[in-house]
Amino acid sequence: MTASRRVTFATAILVLALCSDRAWCLSPEARDRDARGTKVASEQARYRDALEEFRYVLSEDAAHAPAGVSAAQCHAALGELQPARDLYTRALSLNLAPSSVLTVHRELGKIGLRQGRYEDAETHLGEARRLARRDAEIATLLG
Q1: Could you say which of 20, 21, 26, 117 would form a disulfide bridge with 30 (CB–CB 3.0 to 4.6 Å)?
Q2: Does residue 97 carry a pLDDT above 70?
Q3: How far is CA 98 from CA 34, 77, 86, 111, 122, in A?
Q4: CB 31, CB 75: distance < 8 Å
Q5: DSSP string over the chain
Q6: CA–CA dist 71, 59 (Å, integer)
Q7: 65-84, pLDDT tens digit by residue?
Q8: pLDDT band, residue 143 (cuts 50/70/90)
Q9: Tell me, what's the pLDDT at 21?
Q10: Of 106, 110, 28, 96, which is closest to residue 67 (Cα–Cα)?
């Protein structure tokens, strides 16, 4: 993973963690594991270890959107596109912050392109474009 992708990944995880009002519904252990997973993924790029932390959080609260999106990002970073796709899709049905909705649609669009699901990719990238008209990456992906 390139340095710019790591920064993007770390920023997305941080935004998700900060924007979650559900984080306070978690047990202290789950909050600690969520924070540890975020740190391990964003600072050390140890995505497999981070996934274990996010899975713990999701086992306690399956509707914890930030952990679901963070787990999806870890799967995507590991090249595991279908689990990432499944988690991102599930996250869209949860209470996501607007910036997270944009992230999820953009990432689903990228996964769709990589999987050859072009109509699906276009749908998600179109929604991301609607949410962020000036985003150059989304414009480029829509090409």
Answers
A1: 26
A2: yes
A3: 21, 22, 20, 20, 20
A4: no
A5: --HHHHHHHHHHHHHHHHT-SGGGGS-HHHHHHHHHHHHHHHHH--HHHHHHHHHHHHHH-TT-HHHHHHHHHHHHHTT-HHHHHHHHHHHTTS---HHHHHHHHHHHHHHHHHHT-HHHHHHHHHHHHHH-TT-HHHHHHH-
A6: 12
A7: 999 999 999 999 999 999 99
A8: confident
A9: 46
A10: 96
Q: Which amino acid is at 123?
A: T
19-33, 109-123, 125-139: the lowest-pLDDT one: 19-33
Residues in the chain, total: 143
pLDDT score of 95: 85
Distant-in-sequence, close-in-space partners of 32: CB < 8 Å, separation ≥ 6: none
Residue 73: name the closest of 142, 7, 143 by CA: 7
What is d(CA 130, CA 60) in angstroms, rounded to the nearest whole number? Answer: 34
Distance between CA atoms of 143 and 84, rounded to whole angstroms?
23
Handedness of CA 53, 77, 16, 60 (dihedral sign): negative
